[in-house]
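Next up, sample data.

:::
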Amino acid sequence: LQRVMSRTLLTLVGVVALSAVANGQCAAVDHPNCANWVKNGFCTNPGYSISYLQTYCPKSCANSGCGPAAAVTTTTAATAAFTENKNCPKWAESPTTMFCASTTITLEQKKTICKETCKAEANQEDGCAIYTQTADKVKKEANVATGAAKLNAATADGATKVVAVYVKDKCEVELFADDAAPAGTKLGLGTPTVNNYKVEPAQQTSQKYTCTCNP
C-alpha cells in the first residue's frame, strides 16, 4: 500500500509540474484576431503546436492547456497588451527565415506576428531599402528616398552581401555592380501586397542601388 501511495504521489507531482510548465507559456490575453482564427479551425489545426496556441489564443483554444475557454476580448486594452512574438528579432536576423524580408510570409502575417520588428514593412515606409548579411546575421539598412542612391562599400570584400530588398508600392530598386556601372539589375515593382524581393547570387556583391518611385 505504501508503495502504491508513493507511486501515486510521484505521478501527481509530475502532473502538477507539467501543468505549471504548460501554463507558464500561456499569454495573458488572446490575440485580437483569435475570434476569426478559431472559426477557421486554428485550435484544431495539426499544423499548430500547443505552444503556438498558448502564445496566440490561450483563452479561446480549450486544448491549449491554459484553462477553460473564454470569450475573446477585442478591446483596445487587449490589442495593446499583445505586442509580438518574442522570437521576432531572432527570426528577422536569421538568414534562414529573414522574417521581415521574406517573400513567402505575407504582409498581413508580418503585421500580425511581428508588427514591431517588421514595422517598416508593415507600415509601408517610404522608398526602398536593402537587407545585408554578414556572417550569420541579416540587417536591414536605412530606407532611401525616391531617386536616391547609396554605395554599399562593405560588399566589395565579400564579407557582406545583399540578400534582399524592400520596395514600397509603385517603387523599384535597381542594383549596380559598382558606383561606375552604367546599368544595373531591376528587381521588381512594389505593390500593395508584395514589398520584398530576393537578390540572386550574381547581384549579392552589388555596391550601389537606386530607388525610383512612381506617383
Remarks:
- The radius of gyration is 23 Å.
- The CA atoms of residues 92 and 99 lie 5 Å apart.
- Strands lie at 128-134, 137-140, 149-151, 160-167, 171-176, 185-189, 196-198, 208-213.
- The longest strand covers residues 160-167.
